[in-house]
């Protein structure tokens, strides 16, 4: 019932989308013998050989998100989960499978060629070991924002510098120029490859149409400078979190992003592109799915963790709001202190008693220095404390997303079981029927189908177990990282507060003799 | 806040005065040891200790309301003999509007905070309420002390009645209102600036004073309002620390993972906000109150200048009248006498005015010195406590 509802809803929306991005989709659909197999599957053969990075063993997965909707009708491209093959995803994220109206689907399975499992496992362990110890040496900085172009087509180019001793990179220190949509494109690819198998992919910084427009239009004021700085800092944190992930850092897309001087433009990240709209539709689809799937949770760990993350999410949002208020008030304090400093200076000028006049002028100077101090503290409040909390609010959304993926995987497995049951019943019916001539052909067909669905059920179960395993590991890693991350940033923040107090002492101690000198 | 008896401690007493050198003369010592807050009305207990024979008893206390102080001030202003003196500025009406409004807002937002958070905010507001209370007591006390330490005012009959009369003063107040109707005061305010800046000044001293006072008044008024804004922002930051601390507490309570340092952090912010709160209120008392008080005092000095200017105008008119009378040869003696009177009045006014303004400057400079020193010392003290708290927490976090 759910699926039917979905099919119709999706069909209608997609027809509209097709209209918008007609060429794109039609082109994709044309390229494949089986309309349901996603694009990168066919590309991979050419790409791997052309890829200068070589076929590094990495985890890539073709996204089969769409299969939910077409469970009854589509083919699944199934991969045996633990085994992966190197794939360089080119262009838009394969989360967007070509759209096919149910009537066109044929009944062919395309089993995938698999890579080398054991080799993969070993290298993953190695990297994880590196990640755990001090050998995980990589540092990324995002700097030198530069405006390129003019008017509405202008954009900011950022320099991304990587310093590392890891062998998966060609050099130990290198930089490239990237723009914001490149980062979004990277995230989009990583999300489509890893999220549905249970990896927590760090979210990219958010878009801001208002902020960017100001920059494009060339408004060189404080707010646009602040906006660029905020974005630069966010991009840096995003990359650092991504490369700290032992699996993601090995991804060819990540390596290409950091290393290669030219990067194909990620057009699909634009909000109003065909891909963008499909993304929105997917999001809606996911939301409906979440409401209708009632999972039988057999594992208490998952239930507990989900609840924990729910609570954490609420508390972090609240804390974030309080810290944002603090930033705002501290900025106000800075402004008001500056205003008072000016007023005190005027008062000092007006004062006719010489010593008092000098003391008042000194007071004005002290207050001016203090207003600077408050402003700097407000920056620290924001960039250290507030942004940390904002990042984690978004990260937790990603974590919750991964739990949802597990639910979807479970649901797929269940659906396969239902299908198998239906086919078995159909077979039974055939055996009871009395039509000898057509019977044998039908019986054979049904047998084939049953085999197919048995395979799918097995695959579904394997997928579910794998994603559960991955999530457990990921959550463990996430919690460790979180503790470390918070501790480091909080210490830095407290040290900023200490610095402010030290400066205050210095300023007031310098002022005291001036006040005492009033005679 | 309903009826509450608030005895004021010795420490509060010391911290209070923005003015200096008051209440040193043992022959007449006045203070306000406590006050009662009843809804909108504050009842001050005025306590007098005296060796002067003019009083009936050597030590006594009476209960007075704000309106009684205003009555006393107005009678002084209206007394001719005091025209050449700076009348100490009347204390402003007790204003609990700000904390009351905040308390109301807090009540509305109660549902959105934890119990602990709400309790802390309430505590903060009660402290604010108390601070307003302390300030109003201080400012009423200083008014009386200015009078008692002045050679002329201390002998004023109405002042004595104010201190001694053990009945309600409201009857007297009503009579006074009927007599003067507040008309005079309003007139003074509007004509003030024009008259002072208009009259030609022959005396160099007064010329300088006039320029100085007019300019200084506008500057100190501006500085007062900017200082107020600054202090308010400071309080807002301290309040934000409360919310941060409360949420950190909830986080650490719910979080099963070893984020023990969240608890320490929550504790730290709670302690920090107390210090920040003190910084804000000390700044208020030492800086904002100082500026506010002297703004009012400068207004009183300007009023003196006005009265002198009016006396000068009267004298000049009397001169003109005398000339006219001489021309017409009619009522010359009368006109001459009037002119002499005006001249005398003007001269006494100028003489006492000069003395007053000079001592006023001395008083002002001393008060600024005292308060600026105290403010700087308190800022240093609070910054040092903040630093100790912060460094302690950093050490704790690093060692884990």
TrEMBL record, chain A:
Gene3D superfamilies: Arfaptin homology (AH) domain/BAR domain, Phox-like domain. Residues 28-55, 76-95 are annotated as: Disordered. Residues 432-470 form a coiled coil. GO terms for cellular component: cytosol; early endosome membrane; lamellipodium; retromer complex. It is a peripheral membrane protein. One of its GO terms (molecular function) is phosphatidylinositol binding. Residues 136-265 form the PX domain. The keyword Membrane applies. GO terms for biological process: early endosome to Golgi transport; intracellular protein transport. Keywords: Acetylation, Cell projection, Coiled coil, Endosome, Lipid-binding, Membrane, Phosphoprotein, Protein transport, Transport. It is found in: Cell projection, Lamellipodium; Early endosome membrane. Its main location: other. Belongs to the sorting nexin family. Involved in several stages of intracellular trafficking. Interacts with membranes containing phosphatidylinositol 3-phosphate (PtdIns(3P)) or phosphatidylinositol 3,5-bisphosphate (PtdIns(3,5)P2). Acts in part as component of the retromer membrane-deforming SNX-BAR subcomplex. The SNX-BAR retromer mediates retrograde transport of cargo proteins from endosomes to the trans-Golgi network (TGN) and is involved in endosome-to-plasma membrane transport for cargo protein recycling. This is Sorting nexin-2. It comes from Scleropages formosus (Asian bonytongue).
From TrEMBL, chain B:
The keyword Transport applies. Gene3D superfamilies: Arfaptin homology (AH) domain/BAR domain, Phox-like domain. One of its GO terms (molecular function) is phosphatidylinositol binding. Residues 1-169 form the PX domain. Transmembrane segments: none annotated. One of its GO terms (cellular component) is cytosol. Keywords: Protein transport, Transport. PROSITE patterns: PX. It comes from the Eukaryota. SUPFAM superfamilies: BAR/IMD domain-like, PX domain. The keyword Protein transport applies. GO terms for biological process: pinocytosis; protein transport; retrograde transport, endosome to Golgi. Involved in several stages of intracellular trafficking. Belongs to the sorting nexin family. This is Sorting nexin.
């Amino acid at each position: 019932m759910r699926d039917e509802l979905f099919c119709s809803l999706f069909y209608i929306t997609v027809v509209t989308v097709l209209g918008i991005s007609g060429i794109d989709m039609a082109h994709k659909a044309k390229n494949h013998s089986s309309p349901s197999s996603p694009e990168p599957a066919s590309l991979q053969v050419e790409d791997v050989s052309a890829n200068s990075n070589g076929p590094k063993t990495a985890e890539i997965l073709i996204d089969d998100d769409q299969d939910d909707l077409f469970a009854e009708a589509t083919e699944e491209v199934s991969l045996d989960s633990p085994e992966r093959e190197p794939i360089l995803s080119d262009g838009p994220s394969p989360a967007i499978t070509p759209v096919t109206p149910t009537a066109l689907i044929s009944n062919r399975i395309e089993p995938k060629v698999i890579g080398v499992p054991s080799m993969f496992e070993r290298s993953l362990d190695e990297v994880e070991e590196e990640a755990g110890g001090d050998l995980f040496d990589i540092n990324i900085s995002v700097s030198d924002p530069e405006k390129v172009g003019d008017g509405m087509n202008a954009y900011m180019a950022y320099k991304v510098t990587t310093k590392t001793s890891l062998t998966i990179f060609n050099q130990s220190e290198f930089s490239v120029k990237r723009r914001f949509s490149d980062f979004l494109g990277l995230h989009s690819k990583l999300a489509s490859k890893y999220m549905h198998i249970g990896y927590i992919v760090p979210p990219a910084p958010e878009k801001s149409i208002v902020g960017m427009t100001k920059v494009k239009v060339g408004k060189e004021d404080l707010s646009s400078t602040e906006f660029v700085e905020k974005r630069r800092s966010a991009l840096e944190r995003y990359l650092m979190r991504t490369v700290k992930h032992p699996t993601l850092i090995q991804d060819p897309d990540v390596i290409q992003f950091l290393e290669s001087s030219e990067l194909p433009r990620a057009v699909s990240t634009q909000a109003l592109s065909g891909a963008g709209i499909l993304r929105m539709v997917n999001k809606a689809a996911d939301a409906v799915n979440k409401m209708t799937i009632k999972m039988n949770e057999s594992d208490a760990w998952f239930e507990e963790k989900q609840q924990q993350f729910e609570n954490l999410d609420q508390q972090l949002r609240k804390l974030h709001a309080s810290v944002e208020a603090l930033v705002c008030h501290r900025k106000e304090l800075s402004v008001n202190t500056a205003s008072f400093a000016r007023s005190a200076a005027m008062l000092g000028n007006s004062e006719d008693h010489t010593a008092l006049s000098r003391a008042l002028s000194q007071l004005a100077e002290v207050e001016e220095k203090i207003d600077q101090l408050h402003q700097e503290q407000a920056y620290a409040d924001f960039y250290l404390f507030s942004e940390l909390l904002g990042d984690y609010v978004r990260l937790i959304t990603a974590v919750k997303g991964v739990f949802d993926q597990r639910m979807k995987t479970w649901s797929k497995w269940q659906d396969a079981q239902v299908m198998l049951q239906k086919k078995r019943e159909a077979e039974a019916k055939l055996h009871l029927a009395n039509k000898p001539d057509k019977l044998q052909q039908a019986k054979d067909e049904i047998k084939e189908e049953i085999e197919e669905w048995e395979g799918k059920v097995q695959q579904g179960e394997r997928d579910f177990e794998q994603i559960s395993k991955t999530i457990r590991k990921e959550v463990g890693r996430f919690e460790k990282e979180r503790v470390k991350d918070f501790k480091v940033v909080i210490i830095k923040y407290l040290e900023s507060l200490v610095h402010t107090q030290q400066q205050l002492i210095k300023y007031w101690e310098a002022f005291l003799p001036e006040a005492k000198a009033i005679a | 806040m309903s009826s509450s008896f608030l005895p004021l401690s010795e420490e509060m007493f010391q911290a209070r005065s923005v003015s200096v050198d008051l209440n040193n003369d043992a022959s007449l010592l006045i203070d306000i040891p406590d006050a009662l807050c009843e809804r909108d009305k504050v009842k001050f207990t005025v306590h007098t200790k005296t060796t002067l024979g003019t009083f009936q008893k050597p030590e006594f206390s009476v209960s007075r309301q704000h309106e009684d102080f205003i009555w006393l001030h107005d009678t002084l202003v209206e007394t001719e003999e005091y025209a050449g003196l700076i009348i100490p500025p009347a204390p402003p009406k007790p204003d609990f509007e700000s904390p009351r409004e905040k308390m109301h807002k807090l009540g509305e937002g109660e549902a959105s905070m934890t119990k602990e958070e709400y309790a802390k905010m309430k505590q903060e507001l009660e402290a604010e309420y108390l601070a307003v209370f302390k300030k109003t007591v201080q400012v009423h006390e200083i008014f009386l002390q200015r009078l008692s330490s002045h050679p002329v005012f201390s002998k004023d009959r109405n002042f004595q009645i104010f201190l001694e009369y053990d009945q309600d003063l409201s009857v007297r107040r009503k009579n006074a209102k009927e007599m003067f109707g507040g008309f005079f005061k309003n007139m003074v305010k509007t004509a003030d600036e024009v008259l002072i800046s208009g009259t030609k000044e022959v005396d160099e001293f007064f010329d300088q004073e006039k320029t100085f006072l007019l300019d200084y008044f506008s500057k100190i008024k501006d500085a007062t309002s900017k200082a107020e804004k600054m202090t308010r922002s400071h309080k807002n930051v301290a309040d934000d620390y409360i919310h941060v601390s409360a949420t950190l507490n909830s986080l650490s309570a719910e979080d099963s993972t070893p984020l023990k340092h969240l608890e320490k952090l929550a504790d730290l912010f709670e302690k920090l906000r107390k210090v920040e709160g003190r910084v804000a209120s000390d700044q208020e008392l030492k800086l904002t109150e100082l500026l506010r008080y002297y703004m009012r005092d400068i207004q009183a000095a300007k009023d003196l200048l006005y009265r002198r200017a009016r006396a000068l105008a009267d004298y000049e008119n009397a001169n003109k009248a005398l000339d006219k009378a001489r021309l017409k040869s009619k009522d010359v003696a009368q006109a001459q006498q009037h002119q002499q009177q005006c001249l005398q009045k003007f001269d006494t006014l100028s003489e006492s005015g000069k003395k007053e303004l000079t001592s006023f400057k001395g008083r002002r400079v001393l008060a600024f010195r005292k308060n600026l020193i105290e403010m700087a010392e308190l800022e240093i003290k609070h910054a040092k406590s903040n630093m100790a708290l912060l460094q302690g927490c950093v050490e704790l976090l690093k060692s884990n």
